[in-house]
Amino acid sequence: MPSIRQPWNLLAPALIALGAAVPLAARAQESAKPAQPDAKAAAPAETKASDPTPPPAGRLIEGGSVNPYTYEPKGVAPDANDPAQTDLHKSLQAMGPVAIEWYQHVQTLSNPFFEGRVPGSRGNDLAAEYVEFYMKQIGLEPAFKQADAAGKDAPSWRQPFMLEGGAPKVESSSVTAAGQALERGKTYQVIGSSGSGAVNAPIVFAGYAIEEGKKDYTSFDKKEDFTGKVVMVLRYEPLDADGRSQWSDRRFSGASAMRSKLDAVADRKAAAIILVNPPECRDGAKELEQTESSVFGPGYDIPIVQLSPEAADALLRKADPKGRGLMDFRQMADKGEMKCVALKPDVQTRVEVAIAEKGIPAQNVGGVLRGKGKLADEWMIIGGHYDHVGMGYFGADPQNRGKLHPGADDNASGTSAMLCSARAMHDFYNSKEAPADCRSIIFLAFTAEESGLDGSREFVKHPTMPADKIAAMINLDMVGRLRGDELAMSGTGTAEKFNDLIRPAIERGGLTVRADPGGRGPSDHASFYAAGIPVLFLFTGNHDDYHKPTDKGFTVNPLGAAKIVHLVEELAKTLVTTPDKPKFTSTDGKGGSDRGYAKVRLGVQPAMSKRDGPGLRLDDVGAGTSAAEAGLAKGDVILKWGDKPMDSGADLVERLHEHEPGDVVKLTILRDGKEMMVDVTLKASKK
Fold first, then answer.
1. What domain count does the chain have?
2. DSSP three-state, residue 238
3. How far is 157 from 72, CA to CA, in rounded Å?
4. Residue where a domain terminates, one of 542, 577, 612
5. Is the separation of the CB atoms in 330 and 316 below 8 Å?
6. How far is it, in rounded angstroms, from Cα 470 to Cα 383?
7. Of 3-17, 42-56, 491-505, which one has max mean pLDDT?
8. Which residues have CB under 8 Å from 433's CB, separation 6+?
9. What number of other Cβ atoms are within 10 A of residue 3's Cβ?
10. What is the CATH number of the domain that holds 441?
11. DSSP string computed for 133-192
């Protein structure tokens, strides 16, 4: 093995917090077993060491489905007045080496230094480096190959790929309007759909930039040409005297869609676009957008910025021969009294934006434990995603945007459990207990799960082994808060007689497992299920910190995690040694859970492959769901949700967060090459 540079700057805080209770590289057979309190400290005086209390038997509860994002077992909280339960050092020592190592991993990965591990961030890259470091320490082999400098395949721990879409990286930008240099973030912002360019030109006011609205309303003359002009556009649509939409009883109509506005102006050859929130708009945004949250569909090849209403007002008053301000122009656009207005040619606005190449570099990280004997050419997979939502610009409550989301349970907990399981299985394979025939195991840390299972989709599209050689996949996502020694396990119906096969392992694991047969659901196992591979998804339950800044390292349960690791070890031993590979069965229509990210559900399965054009293609529509009742079908492409474009699973999650059960939303879909509008009444997430 090549020498390893140890990133002590990452590990030191966690080691100090734990009192350096055990060496991180310790190899102890008992480290893979459920942690037991120290016998001398915990046993009554009359208890003999030769007569230990037997561990409880585990249970498999069948006959129902479990929604991972509403499932919440009720356990007993630690007694805050009991030092044995609250002294961290003593407690962790009593919990054992697995709990200590797992807790150290979680504390490190959820540290703010890792920036919420969002793809494209330095923190996500550091998390990948951290996982790779420990896979090397454990003794795994690199799972992938990449071309070296000579163009030859060389071993690699990484599977790199590019995420489509996302906000661009703004390398530089500047705006000068009405003779004043504006400040990014205060008086202007670069829009996420912006392209690069430098423009110094007079402005044209284009009102709401609506091609066709109600009662023949339009913002354009037929031969409008914006060549060489900076075009100012109001967001939303004509407002009444109270600042509410004239065309919709509830917020805004589809005519206010940003993409259609930008398309209309860009198609008329504008050199740059300025967006402005209309003043005194009751239901619209009041602040500048963030670049990260203003990707209105595919990028354009011209600069697009947003000005504050105050900056736009000053610019208009200087450029308009009559000295009119933003409110005057808004009211003219509200009444339909004007089309586009070219302003003073000598009042020029400079807009300069430099955008880095779009697309977000990402990487899965993987290590291999080689099997032996007759089963060595067959595989099982143990994985979990290491990414999270960063500063909350997607996949989180909008009120928490801009706040760091540590992601301790989601999913530093699963990544850590995967690493601990890798150590346990490595020790097992190198012990006298291991049988002569064992399948190979690939341990995978996926990225970009939060944006739509992109990492696991990438692996399924470009696997390192044939799918028919994979016996099963175990997915660990949010396993850090075991309560009442009970957890949920989805996928128990994805192989013939799967329950009978895994029941002994569950009983040895000592936990109560609530079984759900469904193979689809809210995490990376769904990608493997869709490829015809049996899956098991372990999950310890929902909580109030889900996708919030409060999902911090101190909230997790190390002793419970050690029990989860032991259960994974028992399941893995069964799945790598059983002579016959489990036979896949479909569970579609037999239960399973919706994504559960919000109070409402749509009931669709996004396609595994990305589209060349805009939109979110549907691979499946669940029976009896909101989508099915609205007439959506497999193969449809959702282009817009109301006035907002729909290009990814992350977009879908964002929209679901905004609604309550009973809300009616308008979806623009593409079916057989034709666009159509569909009204969808949203149902509550499945309990």
1. 3
2. coil
3. 36
4. 577
5. no
6. 13
7. 491-505
8. none
9. 5
10. 3.40.630.10
11. HHHHHHT-EE-EEEE-TTS-EEEESEEEEEE-S-PPPEEEEEEEETTEE--BTTTEEE-T
Find all residues with CB under 8 Å of 528, minimum gap 6, and list them: 381, 456, 460, 470, 473, 475, 535
- The CB density around residue 440, as the number of other CB atoms within 10 Å, is 22
pLDDT in tens, 97-156: 999 999 999 999 999 999 999 998 999 999 999 999 999 999 999 999 988 777 788 999
For 236, phi then psi, to 5°, come to 75, -135
Please tell me the distance from the alpha carbon of residue 59 to that of residue 233, in angstroms, as a whole number.
62
How far from the centroid of its chain's Cα atoms is residue 625's Cα? 23
Are the C-beta atoms of residues 343 and 320 closer than 8 Å to each other? yes
Cα–Cα distance measured from residue 195 to residue 358, given in angstroms and rounded to the nearest whole number: 10
Structure confidence by residue, pLDDT tens digits, 163-179: 876 667 899 999 999 88
Residues 349 and 408 in one domain: no
Taking the CA atoms of residue 297, residue 302, residue 306 and residue 307 in that order, the dihedral angle to the nearest 10 degrees is: -170
- For residues 107 and 88, give the distance between their C-alpha atoms in angstroms, rounded to a whole number: 13
How far is the C-alpha of 109 from the C-alpha of 128, rounded, in Å?
Answer: 10
What is the residue type of 116? G
Which residue has 């960063």 as its token pair? 390
Closest CA to 107 of 409, 323, 394: 409
pLDDT tens for each residue of 510-527: 999 999 999 988 899 999
Phi, psi of 304 (to 5 degrees): -135, 120
**What digits encode the pLDDT tens for the residues 16-31?**
334 333 333 333 334 4
> What range does the domain containing 379 cover?
101-162+361-577
In this structure, the chain runs to a length of 687
Integer distance in angstroms from the first to the last C-alpha of the chain?
50
Residues facing residue 620 across a β-bridge: 605
Q: Would you call the peptide bond into 411 cis, given omega within 30 degrees of 0 as the criterion? A: yes
Tokens of 419: 């690493």
Domain at 664, CATH number:
2.30.42.10
SS (H, E, C) 257-296: CHHHHHHHHHHCCECEEEEECCCCCCCCCCCCCCHHHCCC
Question: To the nearest whole number, what is the mean pLDDT of the chain?
Answer: 86
Mean pLDDT across the stretch 636-646?
87
SS3 341: strand
Residues 393 and 324 in one domain: no
Residues 368, 247: Cα–Cα separation, whole Å: 59
Q: Are 181 and 314 in contact (CB under 8 A)?
A: no
The C-alpha angle 472, 477, 482, rounded to 5 degrees, equals 110
> Based on the domain organization, do 653 and 529 belong to the same domain?
no
